[in-house]
Amino acid sequence: MGDFQRNSVVSKTDSFSKSKGFTKNVRLRRQPRLQRQDSLGAIEELIQCGICLEKLTQPKMLPCQHTFCLNCLHSHLMAHRVLIKQQSLDSQNAVSKKPAAIKCPVCQKRVDLEKGVESLADLPKNLYIDSVMKLVAGDISPISTKSDNRCVKCHTFSQQEEQCCQHCMQVFCNVCWNEHLTELESNLSVLVKQVDESKVRLDHKLENFENRCQRLVERIKETTLQKIELLKAKEEKVLKDVETLVGEGNTTYDDISTRLEELKTKLSGNSFHNNNGKVFSFMNFHRETSSLLSAVSRFVEARVIFDPESFRLDQATEGIYNEVEDGENAPPRGTNSLERYENASQQYRNRSFVPKLVWSRCPRPANVAVPPWDSRLLYIAATDTHTVLILNRDRRKLQGRLTSSEMLYPQGIAFSKKHQEIYVSDKWKHCIHVFSKNGDYLRDMLSKGNGNGKVRSPDGIAMGPNEELVICDSGNDRIILIDSKTGEHLSTIGIIDKKTMLNMPTGVAVSGDKIIVADTGNHRIKIFYLDGRKIHEFGSLGKSRGQFRSAEVVAVDPLGFILVGDGGNARVQVFKPDGGVVKIFGGPGQGNDGFGWVSGICITNEFDVIVADSKTRCLKIF
């Protein structure tokens, strides 16, 4: 193979010489002092690629022994493909089915490439040329005491190494060197311009940074004032609770004191004239005296404590406020609510929340609701079908649906027990559709906009205690109250001094005179009075207990416990009325216990929890 390689080297050298206008005879007649330079030139031609005429890089040898750069072979193959396609437009499919091939640029011998372009990388190296390249890399430098340097601009040679620019690491001749120095000097103005632009950019960044910091200061001050107001509201509530306890204590004292005086009068004025009734009378007096002595001993023995963390009153031990004597009616006590909440909390904690009904093919449900006139029915906003489905939970089958050509994207559902009407918020139509109890379409209310009587992307809705409709106007970052019959705007919640404290509210529930709002954009739950005063709020962005990632929907049970559909965390969290976490169930997953994205939630009077999941198109009843 060595002879074949040498022949190929000679032919390659000859071809290159011819391209330069030389012949073998001319090369043989050169003077002896140029023989060393001629040998170096032959070696340089040997390690030169026949395609790019540059020094070989990643040399690959074809079966015909001709060697080329890998990148040059790749480009040659691509050009060959383009040419074949242009010549065979009518038979393009046939050409595309043929295996890739390349012709040697020197001898035109065909080389099949089974893997296409990838086959080029598998071609072998030319060991002979590889050895020559290594030899040249190691021995060319000592041939002359001083290497020639080619000018980067005019490509002439120079023997002056001091003309190598230390900035750009390139060599210049005498003429080009002076031009290069002049060019560098002219670039100073460019540097000055860049410095000026950088200064302007720096000033803008400082201004932007100061503005952000100023907004932070305003936000901190605003948050501080809100927390102060919240603490004052909590203080007022706790002080009222203490006042109530004091009043109850005084009432109990007056009751016991009056009974003591009456018993003393009975004991002082009674004489046992009838010997037959002495024992019976004495037993009655003794029983009444024991009862009063026991009431005196229990009076204010129950220890009421203040919890600074939850900012509320609690009772350390059971006391007289929870005890009822046989045959007596105990007066109303403020601590009964504490027991009721604690019992309900314990029931939630002990509950396993295993679904008793799973509908896995629900057409992308949004919110769900149970009508006040029939607790067996469940209304489901089905966004895929642009309808509201009516499910009979006892029979576990669809009983009907609410439809209208005007309804595009049903979202929230509310009911009027007084007017026997059904209200559906339409997020895309920007209005509220009204249906009768029988399913007849009656009218629509509101329209798109940001003024009174207008909404943008209405989401969750709920019915207030006075038959006012409470609507999450998520596009305008507010809550509005309207007359459920006329659609007249009554009030707005969440806007103070033309600034909103809400960020895309999507869920709302009503408990007594309180409105619970799922402030999705702020990842919080905010509670207001009907007149718009904020009571308190809880939650933050995160995955821990009491935190949310898009608090999407909210519901309230008959005792005031708050259930939040934590959409981003794919779970439901149960809170006490004061915001304390009671129970968390669900989590990411498509099983019976998991959720994808909680899009709807409601709780019945029997404490059945109904959860809609828009991501997995599922409805579960716990």
Automatic annotation (TrEMBL):
Keywords: Coiled coil, Metal-binding, Repeat, Zinc, Zinc-finger. Gene3D superfamilies: TolB, C-terminal domain, Zinc/RING finger domain, C3HC4 (zinc finger). SMART domains: RING. One of its GO terms (molecular function) is ubiquitin protein ligase activity. InterPro entries: 6-blade_b-propeller_TolB-like, NHL_repeat, TRIM-NHL_E3_ligases, Znf-RING_euk, Znf_RING, Znf_RING/FYVE/PHD, Znf_RING_CS. CDD domains: NHL (cd05819). Residues 49-108 form the RING-type domain. It comes from the Eukaryota. NHL repeats lie at residues 409-438, 502-531, 535-578, 582-622. Residues 181-226 form a coiled coil. SUPFAM superfamilies: NHL repeat, RING/U-box. GO terms for biological process: proteasome-mediated ubiquitin-dependent protein catabolic process; protein polyubiquitination. This is RING-type domain-containing protein. It comes from Zophobas morio. The lineage of its organism: Eukaryota, Metazoa, Ecdysozoa, Arthropoda, Hexapoda.
